[in-house]
Design goal:
Structural class: mainly beta
Largest sheet: 16 strands, antiparallel, barrel
Number of domains: 4
CATH topology of the largest domain: Porin
Strand order of the largest sheet: 11-12-13-14-15-16-17-18-19-20-21-24-25-27-28-29
CATH architecture of the largest domain: Beta Barrel
Shape: elongated
Distance between the termini: 55 Å
Number of strands: 29
Radius of gyration: 33 Å
CATH class of the largest domain: Mainly Beta
Number of helices: 7
Length: about 550
């Protein structure tokens, strides 16, 4: 539309810097009207309660607004004497406060008071001014609260097909029977429900008030959250023949199988022809109607005919919110050499080792969508310590200056962090870091080294793309991944990535330090049958050049049911 230049005329011949800042603003008639409304709001918030625009006229290129400014009011007294002392203390309010009349601040104060009572059992509370007096541009009034009837939560009633208990929903929503009505928790219910992997709302929750009680009705349905997925990889067996060998992986994750929010997972992986890995675990939340949960896990790793590693753990979770928890855990680790005695005796990089570790673990998830996020963070932190014992010390070479008694203290720590940020339309920036630290303390006169079969393993499709599965062994490593993703559907994306790791390994016969990295492209594509994934990556380590013939191709498949 046509543009106009705004001129403001003061009817009562008063002006101030605020009015001057709106002079000569340009825009069409709609923009001029919006700017004048903003001016009035600011004037009234600064004490000019009677200010108004009497008329606006447009001619050719000019807009003329005629403003009545009026008097500037101040509080002579805003009394809080009718409010309860504990409320004044909680909200840090003075009994009397002299200030410019600011409607915005006054409205914020009223909303704060209203929220205070609505979250403490008074859903029908009202906040208002009484005893208003104006004299010589000075105002005084009293702030009153009418609490209304007290209400407490009676029952959570579930509607719909969802397979879940009311007790579980009570813990997730942090709403307990008999507690005071809490509007803040009621408002957060939809978000907390939809953040669950296996439940969603059919429609928003409803309330039924009855005398001093209230029932909460939840309308829930199941979401497809159980997953089955597999990956097949092809990699050169060796550079001379160029032949390929097949690697594989199968994962099964069951969410809420018994209707109490449980999780069960099984992961099997084959990295080489004679190397396999198995992980199983179970989690049961909110035991005994508390905020406590129980989890356990078991891991097995067999490295061809060299060694067998076992790990078993149990943890007690304390759920802080629906998206975070702290866990105390105990873990038993054992790694044993296998194979014929002659080969074992000739290798000084392996030994039979046992460890008992106690530690703590923290997890928080603030992702907007768990499967293919656009924004948010996810964070895992853990640290633990315990005693380590080399159980076959008599079989080790006496030339190794190792601490072989059971007084060695082993320390472990780790970080997993993911960050997602939308950069433009459907383009998303994703970066992640995975860090692991393993150390030990004992006799200072002995060497502090590790055996290869007790180290962390990484590399491959789920950690460092462009390399074979679990090819790297380290006592310390930090893995960084950077991706630019284009999300063309909710569960489909194209992406380019760069990933790199620093690692350090100090074992009995060697010390290694390097910065391997890889670069590549990939895609996830959703179909009715499931989500298919494909990635192509090439990696570089030590002083070796990038070679396309050593590139790794990974196929993946995820099915939800």
């Amino acid at each position: 539309g046509q543009e106009f230049k705004l001129t403001i005329h003061s009817i009562d011949h008063y002006s101030n810097a605020l009015i001057s800042s709106y002079q000569d603003i340009q825009g069409d008639s709609s923009n001029i009207a919006q700017e004048l409304n903003k001016l009035l709001t600011e004037l009234q918030n600064n004490g000019f309660l009677a200010s108004s625009i009497d008329s606006v006229s447009f001619n050719e290129e000019n807009a003329h607004a005629y403003l009545f400014l009026g008097e500037k009011y101040k509080w002579s007294a805003l009394n809080f004497e009718e409010l309860e002392p504990e409320v004044l203390e909680k909200l840090k309010l003075n009994r009397k406060k002299i200030d410019i009349v600011n409607l915005n601040k006054l409205n914020i104060l009223k909303k704060t008071l209203l929220s205070y009572y609505e979250n403490r059992g008074y859903p029908f509370a009202k906040v208002f001014l009484q005893n208003i007096e104006i004299k010589d541009s000075l105002m005084q009034a009293s702030l009153f609260v009418e609490k209304g009837s007290y209400c407490s939560l009676d029952s959570i009633i579930l509607k719909g097909e969802a397979k879940i208990t009311a007790n579980y929903m009570s813990r997730v929503l942090q709403l307990n029977q008999g507690e005071p009505y809490n509007q803040k928790k009621i408002n957060a219910a939809s978000k907390r429900i939809n953040n669950l992997r296996f439940l969603s709302e059919i429609k928003p929750a409803e309330l039924e008030f009855k005398k001093d009680k209230v029932d909460l009705y939840l309308y829930l349905q199941n979401k497809k959250a159980n997953t089955f997925n597999g990956i097949i990889g092809f990699a050169p067996e060796n550079e001379e023949t160029g032949k390929l060998f097949i690697t594989g992986e199968l994962n099964l994750n069951l969410m809420n199988p018994f209707g109490r929010g449980e999780e069960i997972y099984l992961e099997w992986e084959k990295m080489e022809s004679s190397t396999q890995k198995l992980d199983v675990g179970f989690m049961y939340p909110y035991i005994f109607r508390s905020n406590l949960g129980l989890d356990s896990d078991f891991s097995l790793y067999k490295k061809d005919s060299t060694y067998l590693s076992l790990s078993a753990g149990v943890g007690i979770r304390v759920f802080l919110h629906s998206d975070s928890y702290f866990k105390g855990y105990y873990k038993y680790k054992s790694t044993t050499r296998i194979g014929d005695e002659e080969n074992l005796a000739s290798s000084l990089n392996f030994a039979d080792v046992k460890s008992n570790i106690f530690g703590g673990y923290y997890y928080i998830n603030k992702l907007d969508y768990i499967y293919n996020p656009r924004k948010g963070i996810e964070l895992k932190l853990f640290a633990g310590a315990g005693f380590k014992e080399i159980s076959d010390a008599k079989n080790l070479d006496d030339s190794l200056n190792l601490n072989t008694d059971s007084r060695t203290i082993e320390v472990e720590a780790g970080l997993d962090a993911n960050f997602y940020y939308p950069i433009y339309n459907n383009f998303v920036f994703h970066c992640s870091n995975t860090t692991r630290y393993l150390d030990q303390f004992g006799d200072q006169e002995k060497d502090i080294v590790f055996f290869e079969n007790e180290l962390y393993r990484f590399g491959g499709a789920k950690s460092l793309k462009g390399f074979d599965e679990s090819i790297f062994y380290a006592s310390i490593y930090s893995l960084q991944n950077v991706e630019i993703k284009y999300l063309f559907e909710q569960n489909s994306a194209f992406y380019i990535f760069w990933n790199a790791a620093y690692y350090y390994r100090n074992i009995t016969q060697e010390t290694t330090e390097d910065f391997p990295w890889g670069v590549g492209i990939g895609m996830d594509f959703q179909t009715k049958a499931g989500i298919f994934s494909l990635s192509y990556a090439v990696g570089k380590q030590f002083d070796n050049p990038l070679e396309l013939r050593t590139a790794k191709i990974h196929f993946g498949y995820i099915s939800r049911f």
